[in-house]
Design goal:
By secondary structure, the protein is an all-alpha fold. The chain has helices at residues 4-44, 80-84, 99-118, 122-144, 149-164, 171-196, 203-216, 221-243, 254-276. The protein is globular, with a radius of gyration of 20 Å. It starts with a helix and ends with a helix.
Length: 277
Amino acid sequence: MFDTATAIVVAAVVGLCVGSFLNVVVHRLPKMLERDWQAQCAELRGETLPETTRYNLAVPRSACPSCGHRIGALENIPVASWLWLRGKCSSCGTRISPRYPLVELLGGALAAYAVWRFGPSWKALAACVFLWMLVALTFIDFDTQLLPDDLTLPLLWAGLIANLFELFVPLKTAVLGAIAGYLSLWLVYWLFRIIRGKEGMGHGDFKLLGALGAWLGWQMLPLVILLSSVVGAVIGLLLLVFKGRDHDIPLAFGPYLAIAGAIALFFGDAILKAYLY
């Protein structure tokens, strides 16, 4: 068994590598889903789509979108390669977004903090999986305003499985959290739709809050919703000030729920105790 210091270092390194993979997930999963939807629509129309090259999380190899240069192993070292390349493609010099090393750093930092907070344990490992999936959902929703079932539903089930062993809350509390999380936003959705005649949020938000309830328990849901509103207000204000965001462009709510869920995981009990006592 690792001592805590060694475990934190290992978690950080593994988290950096997972963060690199999360960049692939964020970029490719929405495109994979779009291809699948197109194929399903064509099948319903009785059409056959032309054959295309395989496209999934493993193939084709990562390449520069500008010149097609295949990214080699030495160019794919988390954070270090981006710094060594000075944020540019080694072939054509096209700028590489700093978001790539940011996601990698998030993966490493969150994993290291989870191990520091919970110690080298199954609880820390489960927390890492929870946080990594929230990172992927955050950036996918920012980019596409989609929260794919391919991530939200496994996240929900993973929370129930983790709490089958009471890693975070008792199983009954987790099941009630999943139900309450989903139904609370489902009711808000339909009330808004009845009153305003349009959708106020996507269905993925229900599933994400249900997943957070499955991990954190029903008692934490009011805090998650409150924190997500605060985080959303702050980020929305910053976007408005620095980017002049158009009010007609809807804001994705999923990232704020995800950030609130991460805060509640680490500090939820302390916040509730400070507020209640």
